[in-house]
Amino acid sequence: MRASRPAVHPVEAPPPAPVAAAQAQAQGEGDGVAHPRGVRMKDPPGAPGTPAGLGLRLAQFFFAAAALAVMASTNDFPSVSAFSYLVAAAILQCLWSLSLAFVDIYALLVKRSLRNARAVCIFTVGDGITGTLTLGAACASAGITVLIGNDLNICAENHCASFETATAMAFISWFALAPSCILNFWSMASR
Amino acid sequence: MRASRPAVHPVEAPPPAPVAAAQAQAQGEGDGVAHPRGVRMKDPPGAPGTPAGLGLRLAQFFFAAAALAVMASTNDFPSVSAFSYLVAAAILQCLWSLSLAFVDIYALLVKRSLRNARAVCIFTVGDGITGTLTLGAACASAGITVLIGNDLNICAENHCASFETATAMAFISWFALAPSCILNFWSMASR
């Protein structure tokens, strides 16, 4: 009967609050409701230095690497400029996303925010450049793939399946890059 | 001799000052130095509702229309999907840029700022979508053009010059669209 008295709850309630706040801070997902005024807002999910941001980087790396591997596995890709360009863009995308994934892992391990003005600016410009190159390479490859497969119907003598898979992977990599770029640009503009 | 007396100038000088300020406000190019604190910053050059913004829109429209005209002047563009897609994307780009050019002209005529939150959001999303489509179409056409001209060397039986011109015009249209999109996104994020 003592457990149902209202006095029990105020005593038990306070301890979990700081732990939850610390966890929320560590994960960068706090909504800022429990924080005092003047404390900086937490990074939105997907920003650099958050688990979602790391997930986006790893997705970009994985799909760019898949596009690179599938395209490089065909023996005749160097005969088409657009496919060679896709390989080059995928290599650049892999290097960029892997570098930023390591930066994110470091930021998560030492529990530091990456909302430094210069870092966000570099991330935004790099995301913009690699994103434009990846989208361009994916579109150029898609144009060639559609030309071979639908317009000329010469899939029998080409690796249409591989070309299509590599193009699709490059597009997915770009779709994973777009949120990172938009979030970085937003956080650069809104400071 | 009366005209050279210094007393003449103080009488004539004051009127031009408010006129110049009004002109600077109307053109959206005031640097805000002469304004009291708390007054909203003027639109940056290139934002919607400024002469530079109108120039960017007209450049987008002109180059997209040029790409459309040059590509449509070849009789065999429908045989290649990427070229048909370029025509479709150029039509969309023309319509979008022309609409926003009219909005800019209206805003300039009635001397109103277009920094409305909903308007900027619509401009940004529309710019992003048309920009992605135009870049994709330009890259796909470039891939095909390079395939025809450099990889297969069959320019003799194709309109390589027209395809190259249309692709270049589409790229220039995208280059004129990028600043509009970035400025709109910046002003949306920084409010």
TrEMBL record, chains A, B:
Protein species of origin: Dichanthelium oligosanthes
InterPro entries associated with the record: CASP_dom, CASPL-5
Disordered: annotated span: 1-46
Membrane-topology descriptor: Multi-pass membrane protein
Protein name per its UniProtKB record: CASP-like protein
Keywords carried by this UniProt record: Cell membrane, Membrane, Transmembrane, Transmembrane helix
Residues covered by the Casparian strip membrane protein domain: 48-176
Domain of life: Eukaryota
Main location: membrane
Record localization: Cell membrane
Subunit-level organization: Homodimer and heterodimers.
Transmembrane segment boundaries: 54-73, 85-109, 121-148, 168-186
One Gene Ontology cellular component: plasma membrane
Protein family per UniProt: Belongs to the Casparian strip membrane proteins (CASP) family.
